[in-house]
Amino acid sequence: MCDMNAIEQHVNEVVLAGSPGLKGMLLAAAPSDTGLLDGIFQLLADPAIRGNYLIFCFALMVLPMIGLAVWYHSNINKTEGGRQLMERQNASKLQTKGSINTAYRNVNEASSLARDIESGAYGEDAKAMQHKVYWVVGLWVVAITVAFGILIWADEVNRAVSAAT
């Protein structure tokens, strides 16, 4: 069996060690006489809080990518290499409908563009921007995994608690 106190202690030591404000906020919002994890479970069992948290998760899923696209497209055209890159991308005959062969051609074209950017064919500015995009997308994937993971985890714990009672 899993010891909830040990899990809570691990979360306190590892996850929230650098964020005493987050721990305090979660403990303050949780019903009294509950631990941090029990408090999270109880908070997310409330339909209003769960709904707001779900809205936050979907905003986290969409808004950073919109911001990244706006940032990328407003900055890539500032250099000659970036303009050449966008001309090549716009000249590509990427199709959204078709067979598996169409998808294969689209993936090959995207891979070719990425290789050319990485090799410096479009200049160091385009390469540096591409690296920033990789980092932002990687951090975004981690953030949405954690955000939705907390929700799924709380749902499963709450389902198990309600089934046991």
Protein topology:
Elements lengths: L3 H12 L4 H10 L6 H10 L1 H30 L3 H12 L8 H19 L5 H41 L1
Helix pairs in contact: 2-3, 3-7, 4-7
Quaternary state of this entry equals single chain
Structural class: mainly alpha
Order of helices and strands: HHHHHHH
Radius of gyration: 23 Å
What gap, in angstroms, lies between the N and C termini? 18 Å
User: Got a strand count?
Assistant: 0
Q: What general form does the structure show?
A: elongated
Determine the number of helices (DSSP H or I, runs of at least 4 residues): 7
Helix content: over 70%
- Specify the biggest β-sheet: none
Task: Give the strand content.
Answer: under 5%
Low-confidence stretches: none
The chain-level mean pLDDT equals 81
Structure, described:
With about 160 residues, the protein is an all-alpha fold. The protein is about 80% helix and about 0% strand. Helix 2 crosses helix 3 (about 35-45), helix 3 packs across helix 7 and helix 4 runs antiparallel to helix 7 (about 125-165). The longest helix is centred in the last third of the chain and has 41 residues, at about 125-165.
